[in-house]
């Protein structure tokens, strides 16, 4: 083969953004082989196809796959379903993080959007409480119970509260748990249409902010079910300044 149609190991390393040592490690693991060795020192050269393979290995590594898993992928000897599920979970976790970071950069007064809330399993306890401090403690206690009993579903927002506009102060405190969870306080929430916006500010201001959703629904002939949710993106664990709290306020639409 003509060396002008091949890549040196240094060129490959630079193009992919890895070290020569990493490529040699791929060879040691049986993932790739040089397409040509030249000279006494055994200089390595690679075709464009091998370059593509090395790039694929690096992408999979960045996604958290081990070299053994990647080798099984190339060999066709592994069940791809668990790998797909794992990558889908990672995608959902990344999307949640991106959404939260974007909200940090936005000014107050985000626009109201019509959305679809996906299905999920939650650990849910219902209590009555008056003060913000009591409500915050109840949510923390519910989260602790859920974590100890079931763990968490990191592809969903960790926790939210749900309440009816017609209720007398009763609030359901909900914590995301793995889909397969079963138990007395496990609820399965179905997909639902809703309207929503992100509130930047103290929890004390949420009742007033919620009126924006009611007004929006009236203006756009949207019939609400009367059920609201507050999904907590950032609060006391991240900020001491209440003005920096971020809460997604949701009004469910009547189906």
What do you see in this structure?
It is a single chain. The protein has about 260 residues and is of the alpha+beta class. The chain has 2 domains: about 5-75, Orthogonal Bundle (Multidrug-efflux Transporter Regulator, Chain: A, Domain 2); about 115-255, Multidrug-efflux Transporter 1 Regulator Bmrr, Chain A. It contains 7 helices and 11 strands. The strands form 2 sheets. The chain has an 8-stranded antiparallel beta sheet with strand order 4-9-11-10-6-7-5-8. Strands 1-3-2 form a 3-stranded antiparallel beta sheet. The longest helix has 26 residues, at about 80-105. The protein starts with 6 loop residues before the first strand and ends with a strand. The model has no long low-confidence stretch (mean pLDDT about 90).
Order of helices and strands: EHHEEHHHEEHEEEEHEE
Major beta sheet, strand line-up: 4-9-11-10-6-7-5-8
Largest sheet: 8 strands, antiparallel
End-to-end distance, in Å? 67 Å
CATH fold-type name of the largest domain: Multidrug-efflux Transporter 1 Regulator Bmrr, Chain A
Going by CATH, the homologous superfamily of the largest domain would be: Regulatory factor, effector binding domain
List the total number of helices: 7
The total count of strands amounts to: 11
- Structural class by secondary-structure content: alpha+beta
Q: In the residues, how many domains can be counted?
A: 2
What is the CATH domain class of the largest domain? Alpha Beta
Query: Average pLDDT value?
Result: 89
Query: Would you identify the regions where 5 or more consecutive residues have pLDDT less than 50?
Result: none
């Amino acid at each position: 083969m003509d060396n002008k149609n091949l890549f040196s190991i240094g060129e490959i390393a630079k193009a992919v953004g890895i070290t020569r040592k990493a490529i040699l490690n791929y060879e040691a693991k049986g993932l790739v082989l040089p397409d040509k060795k030249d000279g006494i020192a055994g200089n390595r050269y690679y075709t464009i196809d091998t370059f593509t393979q090395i790039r694929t290995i690096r992408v999979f590594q960045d996604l958290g796959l081990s070299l053994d898993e990647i080798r099984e992928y190339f060999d066709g000897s592994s069940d791809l379903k668990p790998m797909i599920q794992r990558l889908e979970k990672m995608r959902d976790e990344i999307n949640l993080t991106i959404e939260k970071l974007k909200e940090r950069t936005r000014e107050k007064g985000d626009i109201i959007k019509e959305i679809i809330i996906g299905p999920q399993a939650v650990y849910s306890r219902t209590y009555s409480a008056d003060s913000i401090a009591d409500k915050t403690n109840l949510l923390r206690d519910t989260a602790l119970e859920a974590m100890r009993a079931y763990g968490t579903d990191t592809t969903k927002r960790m926790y939210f509260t749900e309440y009816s506009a017609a209720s007398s102060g009763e609030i359901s405190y909900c914590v995301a748990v793995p889909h397969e969870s079963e138990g007395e306080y496990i609820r399965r929430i179905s997909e639902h249409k809703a309207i929503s916006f992100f509130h930047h500010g103290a929890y004390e201001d949420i009742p007033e902010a919620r009126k924006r959703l009611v007004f929006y629904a009236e203006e756009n002939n949207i019939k609400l079910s009367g059920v609201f949710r507050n999904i907590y993106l950032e609060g006391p664990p991240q900020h001491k300044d209440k003005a920096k709290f971020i809460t997604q306020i949701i009004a469910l639409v009547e189906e």
